[in-house]
Protein 1
Amino acid sequence: AQTVTQSQPEMSVQEAETVTLSCTYDTSESNYYLFWYKQPPSRQMILVIRQEAYKQQNATENRFSVNFQKAAKSFSLKISDSQLGDTAMYFCAFMKTETSYDKVIFGPGTSLSVIP
Amino acid sequence: DGGITQSPKYLFRKEGQNVTLSCEQNLNHDAMYWYRQDPGQGLRLIYYSQIVNDFQKGDIAEGYSVSREKKESFPLTVTSAQKNPTAFYLCASRGRVHRSEKLFFGSGTQLSVL
């Protein structure tokens, strides 16, 4: 069974600085998707970035980038130039590819606070 | 606009009562999911459905029931057997955007016990 672990329950970062959130996962699958979702105080789930396991290139979305290490089963999120609006819970998630509409597993989350 | 609609936004349950949370999507997605979120915690999978008239238990299905009679709808019933139902409930569907899959979420239902 797949599992997703986020070892940092809480983190803080100064505005305009860079922060990295960690995620590790366990699977025997060779192809899959990994996601980072953001949940601000409104509790709406917002997709931040996604990575397909067969792609070696790390995904980037503006100030957000990932460091995907497939062999180590590691998927960290780097937020550059942190902004106050980045304050939220961040969840790492694992999804098998579309060959199987199976469970989508979330990690326990990291609460990120951006300090002015 | 296409999306997922959850209702109601807030729901109160009396002891011994069953309550049903609604989840509707117009995205034409086959797979749908129900998650429970406790304060400051992650998302735990209750039930999921891969196709109409089929669903599977997730990690915390006890005290909950679902149905999937239509592709658009995946209601969740919180039964009286669920002794600690106070939580935030999120519904999601799975679909493709720009040749890549993702989960689309509703805005959630906060369930509280009176």
Protein 2
Amino acid sequence: KQEVTQIPAALSVPEGENLVLNCSFTDSAIYNLQWFRQDPGKGLTSLLLIQSSQREQTSGRLNASLDKSSGRSTLYIAASQPGDSATYLCAVSGGNTNAGKSTFGDGTTLTVKP
Amino acid sequence: GAVVSQHPSRVICKSGTSVKIECRSLDFQATTMFWYRQFPKQSLMLMATSNEGSKATYEQGVEKDKFLINHASLTLSTLTVTSAHPEDSSFYICSAKLGRTGELFFGEGSRLTVL
């Protein structure tokens, strides 16, 4: 059974800092890995999707990497801003096809202080 | 990215009544949609997988007669909470899977309060 762990559970940084969020998973047989942000009382917003054959994806100040063999992914946020404050979740989709369910981590709650 | 709309965003109902929540993929066809429940300060709990044209697949411990799921078209899935009780009060979220890439897109969530 796939298990996804996110460390740290909470993180507080001053504005402008670069930071890294971590996601680890126990079963390397994944189809893809996706990073989301969730604002309080809202749904999830997709940030980056990495297919199992890819090593990283970038979007603006965000960069996500994937190391399937070690079961790890990182989300790098450059020059953090107060608007980045949210809970960040990673999800891995299992199996060799895109038909698998996704397993979610518990998230990292990020606070960026002005 | 693709857009998934969920409605209503908030609903308050009396105990014993039924409530329907809709999840629509606005700009793509979704063969597969998912329904989740989220408790305060916790991650998502998958309730069921909704497949267009077939019966939903429920996770262990989720009552299929309590949480009715219908996925009658490629753009619409509905979750009906039947005979709602206060313990059903929660935040319900849907997602739709983009078949081409497997990417998930989420609705805005529905806050259900059962009095």
